[in-house]
Amino acid sequence: MIATDAWILHRGPEPGSHPVRGALQPEKLSLPEPEDDEALVEPLFASWKANLDHAISRQPIDVCHQRHEDQVVLGNLGVVRVLRQARDGNSPPEGAVCLVMPFAKRDPSGYAELIYAYDAPHTIGLLAKRTKLRGDMLLPVPADTKYSLPQWTVYARYFTAWDNWRVARACWAVQMGEHALADNLVFGWGGGVTFAELALARRAGYRVAMTAGSDERLVFLGKHGITAVDRRLFPALAADTGDDQTHRASENAFLATIRELSDGLGVAIFIDNIGAPLYRTTLKSLARQGVLATVGWKHGMLTSVLRANECIKRHLHVHTHVWRYEDCPSIRDYMERTAWLPDVESLTSYTFDEVPRLAADYSAGRIDSYFPLLQVNPL
User: Fold this and answer.
1) Which positions ≥6 away from 277 have C-beta within 8 Å?
2) Residue 18: is its pLDDT beyond 80?
């Protein structure tokens, strides 16, 4: 057994009862010795994303119940250093610094079915000083990289964006072709994946815009060539009751902004990773032949749609999850080659002992950065 320190989420109330938000507890953990195909690693940095908040809040599932386990160690995305190579030799060697590819189980086409350190049973995440990983889940950081390890730590937002953009753009192009891209608006609700995806859209030649809710984020978007739309101008936009006057006023103001940004056409590709509270407004914003693209949800996973309207307007709905395993090296190399990573100044870092504060700050929306992370072990 291998003793280590970890932040642990314990099993919540029985299924069927009202979910009770959990808390990560600092505890000593005993790891089983690695299997033949597993490497022993020490996490260096871990990325904080919405799936961690979902797990702690036990929404939409209690991952402990899902896995039939009393406790779990979360954290499925980050940078690790190999301490002991897998005995079967199919992992990077001792000392290698790697990105974690969270494919605990993948389908025959290489897409994720179960996610490491989330819904995959018996997986131990990066919120631990030591853990173990299958060798095929370790992707080495380029040996001569021009970028820092904290910059690489938030790679998953970029990998996810790359995959979603690949599908969304292809869906738009199959109906509309590849001409006059600068006349077409790609828009997104705020978030790190959205920011990365809009950077790809901008490189492809589309006009791009995104919402933000703080002065710092508005300035950040402008510096990166993305038209910033102040979300505070539409205060009741997410309070969609269907007939509320304040909501309608916010929605009308937002739709007027979209018309202005798109020369009256509407949004060609709308990146919506928020979910139910903004879904109706998202659909109203779409151009004819527009594409709604999402990689998940932050608030509200149940949505409904008027199918006749979506058919008549030829709207295409794209839903993706993670990315394709075989694309991992290509995406990494594209990031290195084209500087498609966040600036160091755009990162916000916490220490391993500050995990509860990080969790609380993220849940309460107190982090201005799109890229929060924590340092688990010293370099």
Assistant:
1) 238, 239, 240, 299, 300
2) no
